[in-house]
Design a protein that fits this description.
Blueprint: H1 9-25, H2 36-56, H3 60-86, H4 92-115
Helix pairs in contact: 1-2, 1-4, 2-3, 3-4
């Protein structure tokens, strides 16, 4: 049995984003393991986790609420990426890749949320 959230294109794209965040933060300074590294990973996991939970809900209102939380976590991730850039932890190629993935997920989440608006 395949769970419904795994069929969502935005879930698949979000999973790519999570994996990219984990890959990139593995190269961050060890002094940041409980700082920005942890925050980036937590925010990225929150995106896909809330998306999954929302997909499992029965009411449109609940679905929308979890999808909005997912999108808010993405905005949080974007802020943390900006801080990582300022600290010099990411190179230009990494920045472009994260930006592309983040923008795609944001657009997909926004479209998903619109489907559940009254």
């Amino acid at each position: 049995m395949e769970l419904s959230h795994k069929k969502l294109k935005v879930w698949l794209k979000s999973k790519k984003l999570v994996l990219e965040v984990y890959k990139l933060t593995a190269n961050f300074p060890k002094s940041e393991v409980y700082g920005i590294t942890s925050q980036l990973r937590r925010a990225s996991i929150s995106i896909i986790s809330n998306l999954s939970e929302g997909a499992s809900r029965n009411s449109s209102q609940e679905k929308k609420r979890f999808f909005e939380i997912s999108r808010s976590s993405l905005v949080e991730l974007d802020t943390q990426i900006e801080i990582s850039i300022e600290l010099g932890f990411l190179n230009q190629i990494e920045i472009e890749n994260l930006s592309k993935l983040s923008n795609e997920v944001f657009a997909m989440l926004t479209n998903l949320i619109k489907r559940y608006e009254k």
